[in-house]
Amino acid sequence: QVQLVESGGGLVQPGGSLRLSCAASGSSISFYRMAWYRQAPGKQRELVASITPYSNTQYSDSVKGRFTISRDNAKNMVYLQMNSLKPEDTAVYYCQRDPMYWGQGTQVTVSS
Questions:
Q1: Are 61 and 49 in contact (CB under 8 A)?
Q2: Buried b / exposed e across 64-82, counting CB within 10 Å, b at 16+?
Q3: What torsion do the CA atoms of 33, 84, 43, 97 make, to the nearest 10 degrees?
């Protein structure tokens, strides 16, 4: 049974930083593309960043240059470093493993 558990969300002021973590269990992440998605109230879930088994990364235009996705296969962990946060980054952030495994989400709120 694959499980993904996100942590690290919270309330942060504009311009601040947060680091999200995703702990995977039940299966090694080594061979899978991993991704972070987010969903803001009233909006569809959107892809934020992804990382291939070879650590090739992709980012949405809205976070490029501010967010960094990384993985530690030995620890079965995926991370999302978020810098220069903006109020529009407020959302529930989800960890995802191909083909269709999801975590429960962690809330990120950017507000003064």
A1: no
A2: eeebbbebebeebbbbbeb
A3: 10
CA atoms of 13 and 84, how far apart (whole Å): 9
Residues 41-97 have pLDDT tens digits of 999 999 999 999 999 999 999 999 999 999 999 999 999 999 999 999 999 999 999
Task: Say which amino acid occupies 10.
Answer: G
Task: Quote the CA–CA distance of 73 and 112 in Å, as a whole number.
Answer: 36
Confidence grade of residue 19 (pLDDT, cut at 50, 70, 90): very high
Q: Which pair of tokens denotes residue 29?
A: 């992440």
Residues sharing a CB contact under 8 Å with residue 75, sequence separation 6 or more, in sequence order: none
Report H helices in the chain: none
Identify whether the C-beta of residue 4 lies closer than 8 Å to the C-beta of residue 105: no
